[in-house]
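Researcher: I'm preparing a figure for a lab meeting and need a structural model of a single chain. I don't have an experimental structure, so a prediction will have to do for now. The sequence is pasted below. Please return the structure as tokens so I can convert it later.
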Amino acid sequence: MDSSRVIVALDTPEAGDALALARRLDPRLCRVKVGKELFTAAGPAVVEGLRRLGFEVFLDLKFHDIPNTVAGACRAAAALGVWMVNVHASGGGAMMRAAREALAAAPKPPLLIGVTVLTSLGDEELAEIGFAGNAQANVERLARLAAASGLDGVVCSARECPQLRATLGPAFVTVTPGIRLPGDDKGDQARVVTPADAVRLGAHYLVIGRPVTRSPDPVATLQSIARSLEGGKASP
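Model: Understood. Here is the structure written out token by token.
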């Protein structure tokens, strides 16, 4: 069983809480995600603390700015030793290529992933902000641009994985938030699936936050998720 496809989202404003939870988890069963709230509150020190505990870290800051600024941010992320970093694909090809070039010089470049359409957005919200077409069409368009710009993969809903695997190949990495356990409330996510379904759809990595972090027993929940992924099709 390879459950390293699970990325636990440590979405908390307190470094102490994030590190306390991480100490209860097994870095052989999961990686961890540091997002905007935790990084803004705790800074690079929390990434360093998680790495000392043996975790590979996905730095989820979704860089979106002019190419030079994003390139500098990606260099700084690589210097922290993170395993994965992401940028908004809607920032354009020049921005993504600048990020790719900046990371190429790192001794151990992190995976560079493009955010396509946030999983909190449905077709109505996309129309509201001026995007033509539905979520699926926009995800595929931005994923193609990310691939052409040299990125390793994209963030998308697991529901979009089959089409992306068909058009961009199985090696193009898919990172899928919006993961909920059976019976869970979907919260602020619009496009959700269960962990097992995400793997069957072809997802490489599953970002799972509240189902683990708000569980009365996060360790048992993570172990249960790991068991549910046995026999999944996509290889991380």
